[in-house]
Amino acid sequence: MSFKFGAIDTAALAGVEATLTEWPSLGGLGLETLDIPNGGRFLSAATQTHTEFEFLVDISGPTPQETFLRRDNFIGALDPEAGPRDLVVEQETGWLWREVMVANEIRWTRLYWRRGVGFKLTATVTFQTVGGTAEAVEAEPQMIPFTTTLNFTHSRGNTACHPTVEFPAGAQTTVNIGSFSVVVAKPKATSGTAVLDYENFEFYVRNSAGQRVELLTSYMGHFDRPSVQRGALVVVSCVGAPAGTRRLYPNYRRK
Predict the structure, then answer these.
(1) Is 206 within 8 Å of 143 (Cβ atoms)?
(2) CA-CA distance, 126 to 124, in Å (whole number)?
(3) What is the distance, to the nearest Å, from the Cα of residue 6 to the centroid of all Cα atoms in its chain?
(4) How many alpha carbons fall within 13 Å on the CB side of residue 61?
């Protein structure tokens, strides 16, 4: 098994083999509880702080010098100074973990030689999510177009999703996602696409060139966050928006 870290794919690196040692689920899970005087505990909240991935990495080469060079190139590709990047684990290519960095010092074994392999170094490499969430998101987000209303069933991932809704800008619009509803007053922009991104909490108008030209935060009635549970069926609509295509991005997630 290999991994992709930003633009780096270990499957394409000569002499590098990465094996995931364990598959994490519910990474960084913590329970916030209060002790009850007569026994037991009261659950206040369940939180997830981060997800951690541990790989066993082997680097081999025909000579000691080539092996050391491959090691140094591999470490350079992981350099934390380049900042957090997306992580994709082989066989789970439909999902990626955002804002991931190497979490611990990497310590290599002494160089050794194996028949049929050559010279070899081995180390454990640990990654952690550091800035986004403890969940994975779709590597290629699904987009569902509609013209008036959409009957949407949450069918992917294994946890609730926070959708993004796009609609033509230029008029006061009421956005409905199941029982969730928010009124967006008429912005200054008379054209373009209004975007309510509840995954990243970004609300703006985008022009035809893809540039953000106006924030929608001052026009929104509230900032409650819609959440659609897996398996749930909801009706989505953008009442009052000018005629044109609306789009729903479910933003499926998995833990």
Answers:
(1) no
(2) 7
(3) 13
(4) 17
pTM: 0.81
**By three-state DSSP, how is residue 217 classified?**
helix
User: Which of 49, 46, 72, 47 minimizes the C-alpha distance to 59?
Assistant: 72
Contact 74, 57 (CB under 8 A): yes
DSSP assignments along 65-110, one per residue: HHHHHHHHHHHHHH-GGG--EEEEETT-TTEEEEEEEE-S---PPP
Render each residue's pLDDT in the chain as its tens digit; 255 residues: 789 999 999 999 999 999 999 888 888 878 777 888 878 887 777 777 889 999 999 999 999 999 999 999 999 999 999 999 999 998 888 999 999 999 999 999 999 988 888 999 999 999 999 876 788 999 999 999 999 999 999 999 999 999 999 999 999 999 999 999 999 999 999 999 999 999 999 999 999 999 999 999 999 999 999 999 999 999 999 999 999 999 999 999 998
- The SS3 of residue 25 is coil
Task: Answer whether 51's CB lies under 8 Å from 134's CB.
Answer: yes
